[in-house]
Design brief:
Number of helices: 23
Number of domains: 2
Oligomer: single chain
Shape: elongated
CATH class of the largest domain: Alpha Beta
Radius of gyration: 30 Å
Strand order of the largest sheet: 2-1-6-14-15
Structural class: alpha+beta
Amino acid sequence: MKKKKKEKIKRIIIGIFYVSVILILVGLLFVFSLFIYFARDLPRPERYTDRPITEPTKIYDRTGENVLYTIYGEEKRNIISSENVPQHFIDALLVAEDANFYEHIGIDIQGIMRSFLVNLQAGRTVAGGSTISQQFVRSALLTPERVIMRKVREIILTLELERRYSKDEILEFYLNQIPFGSNSYGIESAAQTYFNKSAEELSLAESSTLVSLIPAPSYFSPYGDNLEELMNRKDRLLNRMFSLGLINEEELEEAKEEELSFHISRTFLRAPHFVMQIKSRLEDQYGSSFLEEEGLSVYTTIDFEMQKRAEDLIKARVANNYHHNAYNAAMVVIDPHTGEILALVGSADYFREPLPEGCSPGVNCKFDPFTNVTTRNRQPGSAFKPFVYATAFEKGYRPEDIVLDEMTNFGTPQNPYIPRNYDGLFRGEVTLREALAQSLNVPSVKVLKDMAGLRESVENARKFGINLAHSHDFYGLPLVLGGGDVKLLEVTSAYGVFATDGYRNNPVSILKIINKDGQVIEENKSTSRRVLQPQVAKDITDILSDNNARAPVFGWNSPLYFPNHKVAVKTGSTQNFRDAWTVGYSSDIVVGVWVGNNDNSSMFNAPGVTVAAPLWRSFIETTL
């Protein structure tokens, strides 16, 4: 019995062994078949420019008659030998993208595991595990679709690429193929696009900056909103190169301190800050290759005539503020009934060249042409007050209610908070109408503390579309005086709630997108929703357009007054005159203006009514 049992167990083990061998052989045959199938038509990398006919994406104004920008495919590519690329560029590239390039077989298992752990710890994707070989295959030989079989093909093609070509050849393929944004493919085109020089002439600082662009060229573009992040990435890369002994301390400090001057291409581009914002959104949604090849028609909300007027007015009038040490300005124009952005100017002059002496973008500069200030956090000063007063009115308080304007300590004897009015005077009993119209600080703090409530005011502002990042406790009573960071675009849109008698419309920048076959693949469906009682909105509009109530502080003929039109408007100035605002509206348009310096330096005696209101008035006069 025991012998039979042993023979039975032996037969089972032998059976399992043969089945395992067969499964392994079948698996190997399957993998080999996959490899042969995908690798049989591997294009020669030196012929990666042989592409089918493609159609660019065009971004239009709202009428479709004016092209704002065209997203071409591989418009700019200049082939260069890797021998002519500076060694510090190659060093920076390998450190940033593929430290084990010369050791792995095309797939870096250690790099994948390291990236997995980093992303797991961060709770989001912050690092990739793709090698330079994989990046080249993905960019040059594959479509952008994200499916499992595409990843399988990428791995197989990468292994075959590594089998056929040397590491130095693959590196040269990569250097001439990788996209750097602004339709630039390869290091030579990138050097000419961003620095107006050949790759051979790139400095260490310029090289590390270009390498820092590679993971997300559109997001980190020096012509967009995230220049500061790009500079931080560049510095971190330089620190890593120093820690690895690739550069010395003197080279590290020189590269960090070098003032980079980005070349401003005269490529056909209208409404530049708005278009760069649209382009970034489209690339996130559809992918850059799709946009470059599939011929989309993107109809935006921009009113081209309004946009030109806004740009021309800002360019002409910003020089009037130089004696106030104010060097930049931004403007947003919105239709409050639809939320459509009719004009958006992110800086005084996107194409200004050269920049002021000693100034380079992102480096302690009063004027940065590329940064879109309309989407940057700034403090609004008294331009925030209407949201607090609206909250008080919703609770039942009325414009005729009385508040006492007198010196008041809202803190403690040990930690006093004693705000002052702009002119240093106190007026005794004033109505809420007078307090808001004259922008009195002490009564406004009392309105927030005793009538509106801090929590309720923050919640109301968020309902209007202002994304305050912190809890109400973080801001405290200074919130009503503009002590919270907000965006000009959001505040301008929020004023639209008053213009529409209480309806909220999210800011809209795209009307519709049509593919090359004429099919609408995306279309805006405007959805209004009530967020404020109609009478409260009317009360705010009535106060902000009441010249009699405003005149004791602002004068009878200030830039805020339109004798033949009902125009509601509020100015704002921050402490030490770091920001100056004017936001106002008629029944069918809202205009927000910011004046200040990109480096947050103080202006000289520059309240909103002095430096921002004249620009705001000049524009809104043309629309009435």
